[in-house]
Amino acid sequence: MVLFSFFDNFGMEKDDYTFKVLIVGDAAVGKTQIVNKFINNSFFEKYNFSMGMNFGTKKINFNGKNIKLLLWDTPGQEKYRELMPSSLEYFHLIAIVYAVDNQGSFNNISERVNKIKPKTNKKTKFLLVGNKCDLVEKRQVTKEDAENYAKANKMEFIEISAKAGTNIEKMFNSSLLKILEDENNIENEKKQIDNYSHIDINHNNNLPFCNKYCSCCLCLKKSEGNVEEEEEIEYGE
Q1: Tens of pLDDT along 85-144?
Q2: If you placed Cys at 105, which of 26, 96, 169, 196 could pair as Cys (CB 3.0 to 4.6 Å)?
Q3: Which residue range(s) make up the domain with 42?
Q4: 229/169 same-domain check
């Protein structure tokens, strides 16, 4: 199944950013339902388990930026685990979903994190998602336990309900803030490099830094006499 938004290519301005999101979790925790609710605002009352990788896109305006989210929904059954994308380092966000009425799906989170995290980029964000929070009477996983796990593992956390639509729009907000912060830092670093790229080392005495072993600093510039002397030592044999 391929999920998509009809307005992906129409009616919106050029994307400022494109972010890749991977959604993982046990079977029947509602991963595909979450993606479908987020993209199409619909919910399947009757739904069969995913037997392959689902893909969807969604364009949103967040903090004044046009962002395109590319969402991969992975199958939860063990026999389909090999369908997990191999290039995990290219994902900006990995959302790990459990169902609040299924303690086993929460217990399996640590195993998934331990397998996935070493293969990701150091800037990849992790989001813990407790789905089916509308099932109050069937709850098995307390919000406190999930919050403690997320805090201990430096993850964002949110409880949602794909069926009721609770917190679906807010699901990615905290993670997107941190992703954008990283992107802004990268852009600022590029601007600093661009600002320094025009500096003439031979004539500018106001370099932004000085490093003892920096070959481009004025402090290491040698006189012609010293250069000749070094050449004699290096090549005089």
Answers
A1: 668 899 999 999 999 999 999 999 999 999 899 999 999 999 999 999 999 999 999 999
A2: 26
A3: 17-185
A4: no
Q: How many residues does the chain have?
A: 237
Domain co-membership, 219 together with 104: no
Contacting residues for 99 by C-beta, under 8 A, at least 6 apart? 26, 28, 29, 30, 105, 130, 131, 132, 141
158 with 43, same domain: the answer is yes
Are both 68 and 31 inside the same structural domain? yes
Q: Tally the domains of the chain.
A: 2
Residue type, 208: P
Tokens coding 188: 């600022």
Structure tokens at 85: 């994308």
Query: 28 with 67, same domain?
Result: yes
Residue 147 lies in a domain: yes
217 and 102 assigned to the same domain: no
Between CA 209 and CA 64 the distance in angstroms is: 35
Mention every residue, 6+ apart, whose C-beta is less than 8 A from residue 167.
133, 158, 159, 160, 161
* Range name among 45-49, 124-128, 169-173 with the lowest pLDDT average: 45-49
Task: Give 175-182 contacts, CB < 8 A, sequence gap 24+.
Answer: 175/93, 175/125, 175/127, 176/19, 176/62, 176/63, 176/67, 176/93, 177/63, 178/125, 179/19, 179/92, 179/93, 179/125, 180/17, 180/62, 180/63, 180/65, 182/123
The pLDDT score that the predictor gives to residue 174 is 87
Cβ neighbour number for residue 106 with a 10 Å cutoff: 23
Q: Looking at the structure, tell me whether residues 130 and 212 fall in a common domain.
A: no
